[in-house]
Write a structure and sequence with these properties.
single chain; alpha/beta; 7-stranded parallel β-sheet; 6-stranded parallel β-sheet; 15 helices; 15 strands; globular
Length: 384
Amino acid sequence: MKILMFYHGGSNNRGCEAIVRSGAALIKNQIPNATIDLASWKPETDAHIPLVDTIYCDKPKKIKKYSIEWLNCIIQFKLFKNENYAFRVIHSDIIKLIPNYDIFLSIGGDNYCYGEQPGIYEIDRCVKKAGKKLVLWGASLGDEDLSDAKLEDLKLFDLILARESLTYEILRKHGLINVKLCADGAFTMEKEVLPLPVGWQVGNTLGFNFSPLVWNKNKESKQAAIKLVQHIIENSTMTIAFTPHVIEEGNDDYACLQDFYNQFKTTGRVLLLPNNLNAIQYKGYISKMRFFIGARTHATIAAYSTLIPTMVLGYSVKSKGIAIDIFSEEKLVLSLNEISDSKKLIEKFQEMVIEEENIIQILANNIPRIKNESQKAAIYLSQM
């Protein structure tokens, strides 16, 4: 069985790396003879990932003005109002691979949360026209993300693997019968424990992650988060480890967290983890923390899966659904609007501290079940 993972933006986003790492491991454990290749926008960032056999560059192409392709695109659009030819040119790197594979795993489940994706829709149509199997791996969608065009695309899939129950229920409500419920594979991802940095308090270090993505959506959230850090410094003995998880130009947690670190470094109670660690190394550090506060979903999954009490900043449907599947409620998950309220942040932090032992016990009871749910994705794939 030859499988191609596609629509992967690269591993500078450690969450994307976690999806590839864990997905390849789960599939090869279930289907040992599977060949798993990866099409990536930034293949140089993925070379360190094990169990992936071949990595291809799949960067969307620019159509050169006045080229034959450009003229054909103009003709198709002017005469037929059809942009599909243009999308086939833009995504020709992935489309030319279609004859070589049996199953295509669209692993960017988040891609469907960001408006219309006509380029993805055309790739999917080409896959199905060639008679290949098409799978959406680790999907997350809310009602607000769905449109008629997107639903038509989703109906093309042979299998949609929803990574939490909210997405599963939403897709079933909209009439999709090709949906199975599992959990994010990153719950099963291994960790690598590195030496702890100077200033780390064993058993008393809190991890803190903040993202430009959240900040750009709520401009007052960063100042509220700074007030939360100030509260933790003044009202506890904990060290705070600022923890980046996406390091991309224009969307760089590390650059954002440097502002936090510089503001509090004179206290001697903060440290900034480096920006060159891979997903399993960040998970290793997170696993040694007492608490974790994070905006990036896969950073919070790294915490949950290692039994660390966790507070989520600026939820999406995926973070709401994941919390409900673990706790049967949106436990310590704050909405995008709520995270600009410093009093609300402090209140939720205090709740986490007060309920620390109870939260750890709930995680200890439920994370094994969640990991079993993660493994179902590969089982459903093998059955298909």
